[in-house]
Design brief:
Mean pLDDT: 82
Oligomer: single chain
Length: about 90
């Protein structure tokens, strides 16, 4: 019988919430962020812009220093521009 937090598997597939993430996961987040940032310029920028910023930040490994992945940085910058443009478009 399994209780709360006592799974039947000895080795769970997930890394947990504090896992560092592999290069492949970060590359996927960079691609998702870039797609959201580009799509946000055409539709739902107020939603897709922040998603692109978060995906870009996570793909960069949650830090500004060190080796940056270009796609993650582009997703972060375009997502920020997209969010600001959507907010300005909403209020003006």
């Amino acid at each position: 019988m399994t209780g709360f937090g006592n799974g039947t598997r000895k080795n769970p597939r997930s890394r947990g919430r504090m896992g560092s993430g592999s290069g492949q996961d970060r590359a996927t987040l960079g691609i998702v962020g870039l797609v959201c940032a580009i799509a946000g310029f055409f539709t739902l920028g107020i939603v897709l812009g922040p998603i692109a910023v978060v995906c870009g930040w996570l793909a960069m490994g949650r830090r500004w220093t060190g080796s940056r992945r270009v796609m993650a940085l582009v997703a972060l910058v375009l997502g920020a521009i997209d969010t600001v443009a959507a907010v300005l478009w909403t209020f003006f």
